[in-house]
Amino acid sequence: MDTPVNSFNPYKHLKEQFVSNLTGSSMLEIIALATAVPVLILLRRCFCSNGMRDGNATKISSKKNDDVIVGVWSLRAYMAAMLLDFLLIILPLLLFFTVLSEWTSVAAVLLTLLLISLIAAKRYGASIYLEDGVDSLRSNISSYRVSIMVVTCLCILAVDFRIFPRRYAKTETYGTSLMDLGVGSFVLANSLVSRQARGFPMLKLKNALQSSSPLVVLGIARLLSTAGVDYQVHVGEYGVHWNFFFTLAAVSILSSIINIPPKYSGILGSLIVVGYQVCLINGLNVYLLSNERGTDIISQNKEGIFSIFVTDFCSHTRYWPKNSCSFFSGYWGMYLVGVQLGSYLFFGNSKQVLRSNNWAKVRVGILSLLFWLLTVILDRKVERVSRRTCNVAYVTFVLAQNLQAFISCYLAILQVLAILMLSDYIPGHKISVLEEAFNRNLLASFLLANVLTGVVNLFIETLFASSALALAVLVVYAFVLFLLVGLANFYGIKSKFW
Q: In the chain, N or C: fewer CB atoms in 10 Å?
């Protein structure tokens, strides 16, 4: 049914079509895009390492549960540092996602060469050039989570403009794209530093429900707000009512109900994902990818629900043999694998402390190569990567991209976590204001980005915006978002949701 003329969003149907029936891009292009993000962050750290920050601020150690070191700044110095972060990290990313999208691969190689040159130059003659240990690894993990959040915040608005290449937007059924990595990366990032991975005692069910309740509330709030303003929602992404927050809440609750020790969670997670893939091959994928929807809540939200767990709920469909599936899941299996990876790579088994950074670097590289090899084999021999069904190829794709080590014939490029670990070779490096600010309010930053995205869509017809207007809007949006997040950090505002 067409959207009424007097609707808040008269072009809703056109906007939904604009993000439908997309097939994604090549894995190599995604590798190049994902390379640019951590490399830009490290280039900024190279500029930070000259003592500029320490000269403008008296630094104090003030740890407040979030392991972020807060410095004492003058507002003028802080704003100057924020502007520099914006120009060196945010603005280049926006250009790579829009007007420079055809040059991303070349830019990624050139930026990596520049980074290696700067690291070599700064290490030459430095008396202390290598940082290793708990603080270094903690910083790298935080930067990894921030990089995921920054890319997500930029893409959720950029995708509504024609200046954003359609191959970067979420795929309809099968394929790989930049935005396909979003929800999987969030699930994996949470699992790597979860209570289970750190070896802490699990929360009781009541406490787990209380801890996850903010995510449920946010999911309901998003559902009501999008319906209230008739906001465009691509039903094939999660379903009619399901959304990103419900997925995170469901994984969190499921992991609390079923307590698996970290040393066994990877094995169980792998078995769950493989079992889920068997279900998909035997007919479940036909049901999930079909346009048919019943009137019941399960059929209305089949993509979101079945990506979390598969039970005999699906036996009511004519596509699925009755009583042929028990309990499998895509995102939960991914989460369990991430828990064991976090425990194995970053945390000690007996002590709840971070491992040596050198110890982790080698294993991150080896594992990411193995996951990439597995992704290619599964994509070609079993079933193509599908974010919509969260199949086994998508799970390994997310794992490979987030722990990636990609080796080309010209240059070895360690990516995401592995690239960020190169920061240890930058003498006296300091994390940027952007990293501190977003790390302090990760989920709040995402909520703010969603609100700003909705406001822009209500007041600007993004489909008909020229390239110049689209780029200007995206720059202003990114600047306002970063400014508000940065000021919240400057004034010590912290929103911890769980």
A: N
